[in-house]
Design brief:
The protein has 228 residues and is mainly alpha-helical. It has helices spanning 22-29, 55-72, 102-124, 127-136, 161-196, 200-226, and strands at residues 2-4, 11-13, 34-37, 44-47, 81-83, 90-92, 141-142, 149-150.
Length: 228
């Protein structure tokens, strides 16, 4: 169904649950940087899932950390060895915040960012907000029967159940017109095979039932014509 991207405003073909076009989805997945709120001053800034402070407050925090570091000294001197928290293999310490060996670092940091992103989404969004975003992203569609513009909540091509029934009958009629010869040939072969499998007595009873039904239908048509 046609949707409207909530980021760039472009119209695209997507599922009812989507609210962003493929290009914006790819762009957002390429980075975890999003607007965040600083825990110290409350201003908005762009940062990753683990970012808690804006650049100004982050600088103040770094200065305070550096002063504390100079007072107490390094717990892990640079160049020393430590064990990777993922695979347990020893690695050379290149920074005070290093936790993983070079082989595990990229995947471990990616998984941590993804977990923090999911946690942030749970704290800052709700099912109602996401539902409203999906509804807002839905592009108007023209009903295939009456031509009325409507906002679909599924892949339906019609604006109402009555139009859906009309479209169903139209499609059935079109299929019948295109396949009438094949259908008639199929039923003839089916009836022929059925009759060939009958005994003479069964065939006689079978034809008697059909002829009786035909006489009843003929009487109904004749009565309807005479009363018209």
């Amino acid at each position: 169904m046609q949707r409207i991207c909530k980021y760039c405003g472009a119209e695209y073909a997507g599922d009812p649950g989507s609210s962003a076009c493929p290009a914006c989805v790819a762009r957002l997945r390429a980075t975890s940087v999003r607007p965040r709120i600083c825990v110290d001053c409350g201003t908005s800034f762009d940062g990753g899932p683990a970012a808690l402070r804006c650049p100004s407050c982050r600088l103040d925090r770094r200065r305070e950390t550096d002063r504390s570091y100079r007072r107490r000294g390094a717990a892990r001197p640079l160049g020393s060895t430590d064990d990777c928290q993922v695979c347990g293999q020893p690695y050379t310490v290149n920074s005070g915040l290093q936790k993983y060996c070079p082989n595990c670092a990229a995947q471990a940091i990616r998984e941590k960012d993804q977990a923090q992103s999911r946690a942030w989404n749970r704290r800052n969004t709700s099912p109602e907000q996401r539902r409203e975003e999906r509804q807002t992203a839905t592009a108007a569609r023209i009903c295939a029967v009456c031509g009325k513009a409507f906002i679909p909540d599924s892949k339906s091509l019609t604006c109402s159940t009555s139009c859906a029934e009309k479209l169903k009958r139209q499609n059935a009629g079109a299929w019948e017109a295109d396949h009438r010869l094949q259908r008639n040939a199929y039923h003839k072969e089916r009836i022929k095979a059925k009759e060939q499998a009958m005994t003479p007595e069964q065939y006689k009873a079978y034809r008697g039932t059909i002829n009786a039904r035909a006489r009843i239908n003929y009487a109904k048509r004749k009565n309807k014509k005479d009363n018209a």
